[in-house]
Amino acid sequence: MQKTKLVEVIQGLNDKEIKRFEDYVNSPFFNKNDKVMDLLKYLRKYHPSFDNSRFTKENTYKAVFGSKQKFNLQKLRNVMSQLFKLLDAYLVQLEFDADKDFHAISLLAALDKRYMDKRFTQKYQEFKKQKLSPIERTTKYYYTKYRIEDIAFDHSIKRNNRLIDTSMEEADVNLDYYFLTLKLRYYCVMLNSRNVITVQPNMEFANQILDYLESSSLLDESFFEQIPSIHFYYRLLLLLKEEEDSYYIDLKELLASHRDALPVKEIRQIYTAVFNYLNKKLKGGEGRYIRDIYELYKIMFEQDILIENGFINNHLNFRNALIAGLRLGELDWAEMFIEKYSPLLIPLNRENWVNYSLAELNFHKKHYKETLKYLLGFEFKDAFNYSDHKTLLAKTYYELEEDEALFALTHAFRIYLHRDNNIAEH
After folding, report:
1. pTM of the predicted model as reported, rounded to 2 decimal places
2. What distance in Å separates the CA atoms of residue 306 and residue 301, rounded to the nearest whole number?
């Protein structure tokens, strides 16, 4: 029962979400099947781990249909299927609730469709008066502005509603902003992925967009507050396309002076692309860039740019920041960093990452017995982190002159490398 798709998805709900899901399922507007309600009530008892020997299909069936009925797997599957459909709809509802832009578009479309003209005019004027700060203007913001103006213009034509002060020009301008920002961002993503995906992106249209921007007024400072995303992605695209330091310095200065001009999610994506550029420089032998990586990571952690839903968005950001600090000999900072930010790692494997980080810190401090203590307390299961763990362990044995342990480890590790096809070639 633990391995069913339904259980796997329900495990992804936090306590608040599963409580709201129960309210959702118990609402007659969405569900009228008591058996579905009973099933969810039973599943909640074992959420989130579902790691209990009593949690079986047979016991689940009894909780839903009663102990007197003979076990019928198909009947249970039918109820599970209904609950799964409700769960899918509930997840859509959560996303809809969080998407205020889509609310506005959907409401205006619904009012127009039902000839609720007075309410339409009132809501349209409310949406028009809303003033968002630049940091709230995601790429989707310009699409929302375009759709609202498009719906309003269509409404005014159909109803001859002169109370609606709209024009196709505003819809057209916001559509241009949305298109340009999105295309620039997509080209940045494609260029940033060149080291992973062997296919080179076709840059013909990207070059035309760059030519258009450079000949227009959109890159003027007077337009920055109105549409900062174009300025950021334009500079990032130049950096990724040309890979020249002058573009890196230009973008770094823009990030330093106007970091708050974009939503955190988009700033995070831009920094990620910058890190890839700097890492490429490092691999090319230009070691001076490790200081830039260290300083940029410090900014990102201090500004909570890498924190998403209360956790560090990717454990590799924690690892890379720590490695940069250790390579520069910033040991006091590294110790503070581990203490302050390791609780923000996602719970899965958090303890392992803390032990490994403390092992690395103590190795750089030349406290090799302490290093060994941390390393022997855990093992990674995935191949690449397992390899890093064993490499640091081997280096520690070498420093401690533990020859027998070192030979045994290298022999076992050699066998492991030959056995694992995923990393043998590396």
Report:
1. 0.77
2. 6
